[in-house]
Amino acid sequence: FQEYDVCIAGAGLSGAVIAERYASQLNQSVVIIEKRNHIGGNCYDYIDEETGIRVSQYGAHLFHTDNSRVWKYVQLFSDWTKYEHEVVGVVNGKHVPIPVNIETVNTLFDLNITSTEEMDNWLSEEQVKYDHEPKNSEEMALSRVGRRLYELIFHPYTIKQWNKEPSELGPEVTARIPVRNNHDSRYFGDPFQALPTSGYTAIFDNLLCHPNIDVRLDTDYFKVRDTLRCKHTYFTGPIDTYFAHLGYKKLEYRSLDFERKVVRDTGERGTFQPKFVVNHPSAGTDFTRIVEYKHLLNQTSDHTILFVERSKDGGEPYYPVPNEENKALYRRYQGLAAKEDNVTFVGRLANYKYFNMDQAIINALELFEKDNGVLSQEKDPIA
Ligand code: FAD
Ligand code: NA
Fold first, then answer.
1. Which of 82, 232, 285, 338 has the highest CB neighbour count under 10 A?
2. Residue 382: its pLDDT value, please?
3. Structural domain of 346
4. What pLDDT, on the 0 to 100 scale, is given for residue 376?
5. Under the phi-then-psi rule, with left for phi > 0, alpha for psi from -120 to 50, and beta for the rest, what region is 163?
């Protein structure tokens, strides 16, 4: 047996933050076991060999938060370059801001709205009024944006994304989509929005470089757990894999396919599309968006690299499918998890919940404190 104070399954953000806290704050020994051949979980990025451009393996990642504690914490592990994400969508052949704002509706419907008040009035006339709370994603979208925007953007995009009618999905899917009554074209409203200057993977190198932390890649936790003696275990993989031996149904996930395309000889700064991310919500194409990493951090290359995204079932588990059946199934797994002694289930896969990076970080920090009854001090505290 190998003995550790803390064993962690998964070297994504949740596992890496917990490892860092135990090592730096409590001087405990930690092993972090990762089945992939790299650290970083879904935040992993690398330099594409052919173009020299840094790309993310599991989809575009934009860091944004309104949590100043998280913002301070991440300063300890990376320099950050301010970056306010903006997305355009191709709708009826036109490039329009996403989320929908004044310019979006002016362009699509040939209007001349100039003020927030006018936009509120326009929205209110478009919105479908119900005498009950919206009970699915169709009603939610219609109550927020009305039928025209729904049919142009939200309905076809939801079908591409989920392969389900919005009426089959819980209201929360379209409730999250922001609609702006002003000219703000930023994708996120958070006060802190930035990119790690040397990429995301470097953050994980810095989180995990403590001498108390052993990192084991290419290792499935379930294959090695009998060889470990751990005072406490943190499991950050899919909760249903932990209980797979019971033979319950698996939790459903939606996944993504990334088709890599290099456009050659664009010139040092030449790009293919106007923004880092261009959405394609319409039914006329089978992809949801195109991501062009050359837009980030002033990267230069003779070429540019694109990832054309399509949603699919199977493959890497990315987005929990929000319907009643899955929620009920998750609650069963959750009940089992609560009974596991000395094991904490943490992160997006163990909670069957989409977390942004900042939520994953604050959850991990708070769990560490709760499990240890301590208030940790970030090293080099920023007073
Ligand atoms: P993960 O990163 O998934 O890490 C879990 C790790 O556990 C994985 O490395 C996995 O291989 C490992 N594992 C699983 N099972 C085992 C096992 N049996 N043994 C060993 N290891 C195992 N957040 C943002 O804030 N902004 C964004 O723009 C953004 N974009 C995203 C885009 C996509 C497509 C996705 C899917 C997520 C995005 N996120 C974004 C969310 C972000 O990726 C998560 O917040 C973050 O990855 C959560 O970290 P985690 O450690 O909980 O999970
Ligand atoms: Na995302």
1. 232
2. 42
3. 2-84+192-246+322-372
4. 62
5. left
Could you give the angle at which helices 13-26 and 200-208 cross, rounded to 10 degrees? 30
Residue of the nearest CA to atom 16 in ligand 1?
237
Whether residues 240 and 326 share a domain: the answer is yes
Long-range contacts at 372-378 (CB < 8 A, ≥ 24 apart): 372/26, 374/25, 374/26, 376/21, 376/25, 377/25, 378/72, 378/73, 378/76
The pLDDT value given to residue 176: 75
Categorize the per-residue pLDDT at 381 as very low, low, confident or very high, splitting at 50, 70 and 90.
very low
Closest atom of ligand 1 to 65 CA is 25
Render pLDDT for 204-246 as a digit per residue (tens, 0 to 9).
999 999 999 999 999 999 999 999 999 999 999 999 999 999 9
Question: Are 242 and 334 in the same domain?
Answer: yes
Task: Provide the whole-model pTM.
Answer: 0.95
Best residue among 8, 42, 240, 257 to mutate for probing ligand 1's pocket (most ligand atoms within 8 Å of CB) is 42
Nearest CA to ligand 1 atom 36: 318
d(CA 129, CA 248): 41
Statement to judge: residues 18 and 120 lie in one domain: no
Q: Is the CB–ligand 1 distance for residue 257 below 6 Å? A: no
* 10 and 107 assigned to the same domain: no
Per-residue pLDDT at 120 exceeds 60: yes
CA distance 187 to 185: 6
For residue 181, the CA-to-ligand 1 centroid distance in Å is 33
140 shares its domain with 154: yes
Residue 278 pLDDT more than 50? Answer: yes
Nearest CA to ligand 1 atom 35: 318
User: Of all protein residues, whose CA lies closest to atom 2 belonging to ligand 1?
Assistant: 41
Q: How far is the CA of 363 from the centre of ligand 1 (A)?
A: 14
Indicate whether 344 belongs to any domain.
yes
ipTM: 0.98
Number of structural domains in the chain:
2
